[in-house]
Design goal:
By secondary structure, the protein is α/β, with parallel strands linked by helices. It is built from twelve helices and eleven strands. The strands form three sheets. A seven-stranded mixed sheet has the order 7-8-6-3-4-5-11, sandwiched between helices. Strands 1-2 form a two-stranded antiparallel sheet. The structure holds Fe4 H S5 and zinc ion (2 copies).
Length: 325
């Protein structure tokens, strides 16, 4: 297979676009496509500060890399979850993230270690909250969302960017569609506007890239990322849907992309508008972050912050690597 632009050996053939490209032209195409998505969905401008949630995996490091290449003001946030129970996942992902940040001196990497800050790792708190039976994903998801929102608010980032790719988005879309979870469908989008000064705008600049496309970008650019996914993700429902969707894609190239884009078109035409409930937000009485019910927010309740006798805000201990602001 030859590159369409220069006839060199192609590193990737994208059947859905009928496009094969060599390494150099692929990187150029990938960066330009990202910028086009940022503009098309009005994600952010070069004047806005963007916080990229980085996990050490290919998608988030590739996203940070592309945003810096394009000249956006993009800093990173790594959340140390302490997931080293089944494999040294968190230790290795931190190492990869730090190594990437060290090569990009123009950007800042914020690190929030959950155990250092709140006293327990994610597997420990999950074990406690589920009396030893449950998976850590709901405690983990709640904690990550909270820390991202909180740090973005405190450090004045207008935008929070995540590396979700098309495969991630389509797997979630399929789950939500099979259960007709209209509220979730109404809120699944490349951009979620900010609804409160403490909640940054959420954006997914890679939402139209297949997973193999972000992986190819990371490989061609020589980004050293953690190959293994979190050990708790193995065998989960999302991965099951990804396998099904890959079978569909094999039979019908472009099926995933059109499923997603047609959904966005229907959504854009207001198909789910009536289900887009805007919750009234209250201020958490302990940490001050927005919450849907009065009193303590779900995060402070789970971590038992602000129990009787304690006072003040939940304090985050944060390490900043790289350029100081
Ligand atoms: S939620 Fe669950 Fe992920 Fe947290 S415990 Fe691992 S798999 S990292 S996206
Ligand atoms: Zn070429
Ligand atoms: Zn709170």
């Amino acid at each position: 297979m030859r590159c369409r632009k220069c006839n060199e050996t192609a590193v990737i053939n994208m059947r859905q676009h009928k496009l094969a490209l060599c390494g150099e032209h692929y990187v150029e195409w990938f960066v330009a496509q990202t910028d086009r998505a940022i503009e098309k969905y009005k994600m952010f401008s070069r004047d806005e500060r963007v916080l990229v949630a980085v996990s050490g995996g290919k998608d988030s490091l590739a996203l940070w890399d592309v945003l810096l290449t394009l000249g956006y003001q993009a800093d990173g946030l790594y959340i140390g979850l302490g997931i080293n129970d089944k494999a040294p996942y968190s230790d290795q992902s931190l190492e990869k993230t730090r190594a990437f940040a060290a090569q990009h001196a123009q950007a800042t990497l914020h690190i929030v270690d959950i155990a250092d800050t709140y006293g327990k790792t994610i597997p420990q708190i999950a074990m406690e909250k589920t009396r030893g039976h449950g998976k850590p994903c709901s405690a983990c998801g709640l904690t990550k969302r909270y820390v991202m929102n909180r740090l973005a608010a405190e450090k004045d980032y207008a935008v929070l960017a995540t590396g979700h790719n098309l495969d991630d988005e389509v797997a979630v879309l399929m789950q939500n569609t099979l259960r007709w979870q209209t509220g979730y469908l109404a809120r699944q989008a490349p951009v979620l506007p900010s609804t409160n000064p403490h909640l940054a705008k959420k954006v997914k600049p890679f939402c139209r890239f297949y997973e193999r496309e972000t992986a190819t970008y990371a490989l061609v650019r020589g980004i050293d990322y953690i190959y293994e996914e979190c050990p708790h993700a193995v065998g989960n429902l999302t991965n099951f849907y990804k396998t099904l969707l890959n079978q569909l894609e094999g039979q019908s190239p472009g099926a995933k992309l059109s499923f997603y884009l047609e959904f966005l078109r229907a959504r854009g035409e207001g198909a789910f508008e009536q289900f887009n409930r805007v919750d009234q937000l209250h201020e958490c009485e302990v940490c001050g972050q927005p919450t849907t019910s009065p009193g303590r927010c779900a995060f402070c309740r789970m971590w038992e912050i602000g129990q009787e006798g304690e006072s003040g805000r939940a304090g985050e201990r944060e390490t900043v690597v790289g350029r100081l602001q």
